[in-house]
Amino acid sequence: MKTFLLFLITLSCSAFELELQDTLINDRIHTEYPTYIEGVNLTTTTAGRQEKITDVHIIGLNKYTSVIKRPDYTITPTDNNYGIYFSPDNPTTEEINAATWVTYNGESVGILLRGSIILENLTIDCNMGFQTIPANKSQYEHSSMIGLAGRYYNVTHNGATKKLYIGFKFVEFRDIRILNRGFSDAIWIGRGYFRPHIEELNFNNIQSFNNINQQRADIGFSGLVENANFYNLTLDKIEAESNDSWLNAPATKEFMPAKFTMLNVSLRRFDFASKGQSLYLLADNLRTSDYAYLYQVGGHLKDCIFFIDGGELRRMNRMSDPLFENCTFYIRPHSSGVINGLRPEGFYLNNVAEDCNVRFLRSRFIAVGVFTSGRLIETTKTTTAQKVNMTFEYCYFDERFTGGSLKLALLREKGVVKFIGGNVAASKIDNSGGTLTTLIIE
Q1: Number of C-alpha atoms within 13 angstroms, CB side, residue 223?
Q2: Is 60 exposed, middle or buried (0-12, 13-18, 19+ CB in 10 A)?
Q3: How far apart are CA 205 and CA 192, in angstroms?
Q4: Is 280 helix (H, G, I), strand (E, B) or coil?
Q5: For a disulfide at 374, which of 41, 306, 317, 338, Cβ 3.0-4.6 Å?
Q6: Are 272 and 281 in contact (CB under 8 A)?
Q7: In a 3-state reduction of DSSP, which class is residue 408?
Q8: What is the DSSP pairing of strand 100-104 with strand 51-53?
Q9: pLDDT digits over 111-130, tens only?
Q10: Where along the chain do its domains lie?
Q11: Integer Cα distance of 240 and 270 in angstroms
Q12: For residues 111 and 125, what is the distance between their CA atoms, to the nearest angstrom?
């Protein structure tokens, strides 16, 4: 195992992907022990190359002086200008034979998880304030500073050419500062197109500073992982936007939602959306100061604080029965001065109804800002079969909506809405479309 002193890693981003250029290049692959990199220089090669690794650990001596930095004005006017993009290395013959082979869409495909990535005690300087940015700012949205994902190789197995999907068993980012992010993610988990392409992913003690703008996220997911843990983070934004079905991907295990665990996480913005109700979130002391948007998420969220946007980001779409326990929702008015309130919604597509189910226990709903009208809870009427089912147990609602002229809730959608205990009276629920919503107050 070789170790080197890390002072500065400088990246030139004129290439699509890059590879390590140092004395480790010939012996970092398929070694018995992980390659620990504590002092290397990273430079680009020709477009189309990528950093193929089995195990790599990049460890700084001090996160305030050990820096991975994107140089000034090095992003070309195309997307996918990564700083470092990690991808699993080519499989050996032994690994091909040892992989788990399954049938997917009538074809035999293999799945193999191996290796680890650890980045520790570092500053990651995205340096996006000193890049030439085009008028179309979304053009750089995939030019993440750090990217990683599983991938497939075409291999020969039992005399036939087949796809072998390879992912990572363990990835960890620990004691990291993120600086000067904008236009793209600082850390991006891409799509592996199989389940799971990462078995365990940890983020521990990470902060971000001086974001150039609000595009993309400090940590962004385009593909889910089996287990992701977030501990002691202070960031601008975490986003999971999985458009590929976790349910229908090639896999060696029966379907289980991806499990994301959060403890002591403070964010300005929080945006979790996963296709196929495939994300289970366990959160304790998660706090947002700008907005929180949840889409097709289940789980248990406890002792959390959410600021709710007055516009479209107030929706909770197709929720798969999460429990919000002892949580506080601060609900802002729309720019028109109206409190629109939380708006859980179901969905109907291709003759399939997807309900929205959500529970609140000992939680609080407080209006903030200047407003003239509105409500704290709202459902909208649809003509298709989806339902919205909600339970509020021993919850507290802003007294301006439980007394006076304002209504607490406006209910228009099919489903059952139940209030158990708390400061609720039937007169404060607008259920005038009563043939749709079954209202229960106990």
Answers
A1: 22
A2: buried
A3: 26
A4: strand
A5: 338
A6: yes
A7: coil
A8: unpaired
A9: 999 988 889 888 898 989 98
A10: 1-256, 299-442
A11: 9
A12: 34
